[in-house]
Amino acid sequence: MSALIDIDNLSVSYQIGSSLFGARQKIEVLSDISLQIKKGQFFGLVGESGSGKSTLGKALLQAAPISGGRITSHITDTPLEVASLKGQALKDYRKSAQMIFQDPYSSLNPRMTIRDIIAEPLEVMGLAQSREETDQKVREIARQCRLNLEHLRRFPHAFSGGQRQRIAIARALVSEPELIIADESVAALDVSTQADILNLLKSIQSSKGLTFFFISHDLSVVAHVCDVVAVMYLGQIVEIAPKKSLFAMPRHPYTKALLASVPSLDLDQKLEPNLIEGEIPSVAAPPEGCRIHTRCPHATALCISTPPMMQQDEAGHSVACHHWATLPA
Amino acid sequence: MPLLSVKDLTIYFNTDEGQITAVEDVSFDVRRGEILGIVGESGSGKSVSTKSLMMLNGRNSQISPESRLILETDDGPVDIASLSHVKDLRLVRGHSISMIFQEPMASFAPAVKIGKQMVEQLLIHTDLDKTTAKARSIEILSRVGIPDPELRFNQFSFELSGGMRQRAMIAMALSTRPKLLIADEPTTALDVTIQAQVLALIKDLVAEFDMSVILITHDLGVIAQTADRVAVMYLGRIVEQGTTRDVITSPQHPYTQGLINSRPSLDHFEDPLTPLSGDLPSPLERPQGCVFHTRCAHAIKGLCDTQKPPVIGVAGQDPTDEDAHNTSCHLLSPSASEQVLVS
Questions:
Q1: What distance lies between CA A13 and its chain's CA centroid?
Q2: Would you call B244 and A267 a contact, using CB atoms and an 8 Å cutoff?
Q3: Distances in Å between the alpha carbon of B121 and those of B56, B83, B117, B136, B234?
Q4: Which of A62, A273, A325, B213 is the right S-S partner for B35, CB 3.0 to 4.6 Å?
Q5: Do both B92 and B185 map to the same domain?
Q6: Which among A162, A191, A262 has the least Cβ separation from residue B192?
């Protein structure tokens, strides 16, 4: 598989507060992120709240202030540097990279019909020449997202959460993008509908050869749909691996703690709340050295002083931990 | 004698679009020292039925006259449904029963210090004076694992992280030493690592405070890891009830089976997910007969869509037994299987 998006040493910083004299304070919410999303991949990104996973999704669309490093898109034949895109070039790029949000109740305009919601990207981006063509494209995509075509004239309030999320998916797909960024797209749904939407996303991915960047806090969801998974903590990536390898043989103590905290239906499972201690620190003052050292029971003097490098093996399993090889499994 | 016995609870809401049945014929017991889990999806009535235990459902709600909510108190059994005066309800609210909610940010008053809110309710519900109330509050803040409790006592809720806020909420709920704690999705807004900490805390406190807990959640995994018994709700009815082991290892009702099969799990992540077919019906178009028949693959025409299924004991158990595994499904009732054979 060839690369669709290359992220190299990416940093994102927000400026906060304001001072009449002197510089404003800068908060670096993502630091030194490097990863590659391959064409046709279902790439998963997991992490706790405050880890910066949504910011990374936004940065892919140049919707977050990129302060260092680069994002290179290979969607078009000539590679594009996403951070420097402006004007028409940026608009063209965003046609090919679309987003699906978490809450289908607030992401759909209540005063627009379903037909108009799905047609809006076509009109804004000038992708249809006539009303007939727009209608035809809307009906085609609505059918693929298993929406009832007779419902296109209704308004969002008439639909349940799962149906609304299908509408949001149809809207994202109608401009025929190459990359879909799905930010917690099933988090607001009940389990029985969540399974339906996940199956829909998977079938769309395989039938259209799309690439998904799937952001979620839910490890079991990611385990079901993704091919490759990256784990984030406090603005950095601590582990990236193919799904099977990550869930069967996690290497980073943080990944292990996350997996051990997920309540399963196995009644003899013992939840282990103490593999990782306390809570995530503020991103405004991240710890020195390895950022997880304040919560990691295996932390040593080395972890407190020196940030670990990402170490990758031949199978593509990368981990950023000084001691992973010697930790108990 | 169970601590709480709910019998035939039915709750209506009067809305502009008409009367909605939110809870129908719900019966369950909560025994002393147990954690009863109530699991269901949105609209299942899990929150509404437990809010009725504190009469918190609002003015447009109506409890049917047959409903009985019998709570054992120090002065004997009380039917909560018959309490109408605020003064009588005070014996229940915050005294015998405390409640914690999903979003702790919304449950604390934002402009009043945490300590003041804790002391205030102790002054209302107990005989403690201000100094001892403060001491008890700080002691319990420290018990739920809040570092530096004296400092936190003088802070506002926005100064705490999500996990700490939920711990403070639990501390506040427990400071009056309630007999029953209702926890409504207490960990849904928390990250998994923090969720594991809070669930472990709740389990420890049950034994230590000799109380019972009703744990409401949409996540069967949370039930499996914490509850002793579980009731599964769908559209206002309990469709299955029993010990957590019985219900999770041998689910009988098609809805419970559907919930388990559609749930993504780390143990079987290579298996495909099987969603329940169809969408949740609107509460205004509540299905006749068995409420689940519109989404049930095994529904029998002429039976499931017309007659309400009876409560039956699984594998010949007496459904009134303490630990009985019960379900409400025509397919599992002996008389219905005969009807199927006939048709």
A1: 18
A2: yes
A3: 17, 21, 7, 12, 35
A4: B213
A5: yes
A6: A262
**In the listed set B158, B177, B196, which residue is the last one of a domain according to the structure?**
B177
Q: Does B307 fall in a domain?
A: no
CA-based nearest distance A53→chain B, Å? 14
Tell me which chain B residues have a C-beta less than 8 angstroms from the C-beta of A192: 41, 258-259, 262, 275-276
- Domain boundaries, given as residue ranges, for chain A: 40-66+80-233, 243-329
Within 8 A of A219 by CB-CB distance, chain B residues are 192, 266
- Asked if residue B232 is part of any domain, the answer here is yes
**Do B152 and B71 share a structural domain?**
no
Tell me the CATH architecture of domain A40-66+80-233: 3-Layer(aba) Sandwich (3.40)
Mean pLDDT of the residues in chain A: 91
B131 lies in the same domain as B207: no
3-class SS at A100? strand
pLDDT of B333:
79
At a CB cut-off of 8 Å and minimum separation 6, what does B132 contact?
none
Mean pLDDT across A120-126: 91
Report in angstroms the alpha-carbon separations of B240 from A4, A235, B29, B232, B286. Answer: 49, 44, 14, 5, 19
Is residue B88 predicted with pLDDT exceeding 90? no
Asked if B259 is an interface residue toward chain A (Cβ–Cβ < 8 A), one would say yes
B4 DSSP 8-state letter: E
What is the mean pLDDT of the segment spanning B203-211? 91
* CATH number, domain containing residue B38: 3.40.50.300
What local confidence, expressed as pLDDT, does residue B340 receive? 47
Q: Domain for residue B288, yes or no? A: no
- Mean pLDDT, rounded, for B207-235: 95
Q: Are residues B88 and B200 in the same domain?
A: yes
B69, HSE (Cβ side, Cα atoms, 13 Å): 21
Domain count, chain B: 2
How many CB atoms lie under 10 A from the CB of residue A25?
A: 12
Cα distances (angstroms) measured from residue B153 to each of A195, B211, B342:
43, 25, 69
Residues B120 and B63 in one domain: no
Q: What are phi and psi of A28, to 5 degrees?
A: -90, 105
Residue A103 has pLDDT above 90, yes or no: no
Domain boundary among B114, B142, B177: B177
- pLDDT surpasses 70 at A264: yes
Whole-number Å distance between alpha carbons of A162 and A189:
7
Count of CB atoms within 10 A of residue A265's CB? 18
Read off the pLDDT of residues B9-54 as tens digits, 9 standing for 90 and up. 999 999 888 899 999 999 999 999 999 999 998 889 999 999 999 9
Q: Which sign does the torsion angle of CA B109, B114, B115, B119 carry? A: positive
Are B161 and B245 in the same domain?
no
Shared-domain flag, residues B73 and B190: yes
In a domain, B70, yes or no: yes
Q: Provide, as residue numbers in chain B, all residues whose Cβ is less than 8 Å from the Cβ of A272.
A: 196
Q: What is the pLDDT of residues A68-101, one digit of tens each?
A: 999 999 998 899 999 999 999 999 999 999 999 8
The ipTM (two decimal places) reads: 0.86
CB nearest to A279's CB, from B163, B245, B266 = B163
Q: Tell me which chain B residues have a C-beta less than 8 angstroms from the C-beta of A220.
A: 263-266, 269
Least CB-CB distance to B280: which of A160, A243, A266? A160
Contact criterion met (CB below 8 Å) for A71 and A36:
no
Q: Tell me the residue range of the domain where B193 lies.
A: 1-96+181-280
